[in-house]
Amino acid sequence: MTEAAPDMSVAPVKARTDRLQAGLKARYARERRFKLYGVMAIAVAVGFLLLLLGRIIEQGHTAFYAHELTIPVYMDPARIDRTYPQGTNFQLLVAEQQLARFGITDDAQGTQATAMRTLLSSELKFRAAAMIRENPALIGQTVPVTAPVSDEADLYYKGEITAETPSDQRRVSDQQMAWLDQLKSDGAVQAKFNSALFQNGDSTEPEQAGVLGAVVGSALMLLVTALIAIPIGVGAAVYLEEFSPRNRLTDLIEVNINNLAAVPSIVYGLLGVALFINWMNLPRSSPLVGGLVLALMALPTIIIATRSSLKAVPPSIREAALAMGASKTQTVFQHVLPLAMPGVMTGTIISMAHALGETAPLLLIGMVSFVPGIPGGLTEPTGALPSLVYIWENASERAFHERTAAAILVLLAFMIVMNAAAILLRRRFERRW
Predict the structure, then answer these.
(1) What residues form DSSP beta bridges with 145?
(2) Residue 39, pLDDT score
(3) Distances, alpha carbon 109 to alpha carbons 8, 93, 120, 122, 176, in Å
(4) 189: Cβ contacts below 8 Å, ≥ 6 apart
(5) pLDDT at residue 59 in the model
(6) What is the pLDDT of residue 415?
(7) What is the pTM of this model?
(8) Nearest partner of 382 among 198, 200, 201, judged by Cα
(9) What are the φ/ψ torsions at residue 77 (nearest 5 degrees)?
(10) pLDDT for 1 beyond 60
(11) Which label site among 127, 250, 362, 417 has the fewest CB atoms less than 10 Å from its CB?
(12) Number of C-alpha atoms within 13 angstroms, CB side, residue 428?
């Protein structure tokens, strides 16, 4: 009887199986490593974002509250003009009376009164004058007057300035610190929400500076930008993608649009100065000029995003509409464009957010100037949130630095609200179509 020959094909099959399994393990390992790298990249990005936001909040949260001083003031008839109360030096009047309460005798030059007066904001004289103007019967009486303290005194109460701070880095003397401590121990100083930050325009005095003028200016500029850039940008994209012939001219236009999207923003600022201010004689530092410049800058982004959205619409939509007898215009505006609208809205959101944060073109058209009031129209001088951040960060007073971070937080909140509104509008289009 012959013995059965061994099956020599088992070993090669087993070897191939082992190689396949080893390859699968290596492939799965590479996939796990790739996922891990992706998670690590997201974690690093989120970490940097949280670090940035945390640093801004840490520096700017103190600007949202301020210290106010409430002290009794004798409205001296010998020093207050009943017909013109705003001409009275209420700061000096209050300083002298407060020194008397502390039992301090001033010299002939009024050195102590001057030192005390620097702890009081100039807002005190406006509030006291308003009280006399509204009720002249207060003259000769002692009434409580509430006003913010000066910026340096406010920083001392917030712990930004201490006795250990070198004297060349602070404008509050040790004696003034003792006075501030006495006022706080007497209950005359309270920390309150800094409503002036949201109710006032820019000011040379940090304790009175606010962002309202810049917020209104930014809103007016974005309104001009949206009214100009969105219709022109979407219309140009629809024509180039759906109606224009394919020739060298349209190819040249497309290349230039792509190049314009990469042009530095400061170039648009130079163009705005030359075109809108020097040639068209439009008012400098106005929301109208700022909106026109930002509209020029936003147009390439809107056109490119709109064309990409139109390309993403399946050709079968166009073919079905044309087959049912619709014209080219009806096909584009009743079928293709509504389906592309979510992508169009995304491009619009990106362009508007980019325009909101631009600083360089605004500086060139004059929005770096000091504008204390609130703009009442498109042609009045105004500031903007990015330029206000630039101005405050370069200010010499330390109190402006915390307000710089607060203005950045307001700018971020403005951008989040604007983007949220645009996203909700985009979702309405998505649900509708």
Answers:
(1) 71
(2) 93
(3) 116, 15, 19, 21, 18
(4) 67, 68, 69, 70, 149, 157, 180, 183
(5) 87
(6) 83
(7) 0.83
(8) 201
(9) -65, -25
(10) no
(11) 417
(12) 6
Look-up of token digits 């014209």 = 327
Please state, in angstroms and rounded to a whole number, the distance separating the CA atoms of residues 210 and 201: 5
Tokens matching residue 141 = 């009486």
Residue carrying the six token digits 């799965």: 28
CB atoms closer than 10 angstroms to residue 331: 19
HEC letters along 285-313: CCHHHHHHHHHHHHHHHHHHHHHHHHHHC
Find out whether 95 and 117 touch, Cβ atoms under 8 Å.
yes
Where residue 433 falls among pLDDT bands split at 50, 70, 90?
A: low
Q: Residue 145 — φ and ψ, nearest 5°?
A: -125, 130
Mean pLDDT, residues 258-283? 86
Q: Model confidence over 61-75: pLDDT tens digits?
A: 888 999 999 989 888
For the chain, the C-alpha Rg in angstroms (whole number) is: 33
Residue 358 has pLDDT above 60, yes or no: yes
Distance, in Å, from the CA atom of 124 to the CA atom of 129, rounded to the nearest integer, reads 8
Please give the structure tokens belonging to residue 108.
């002939």
Distance CA 35, CA 58 (A): 34
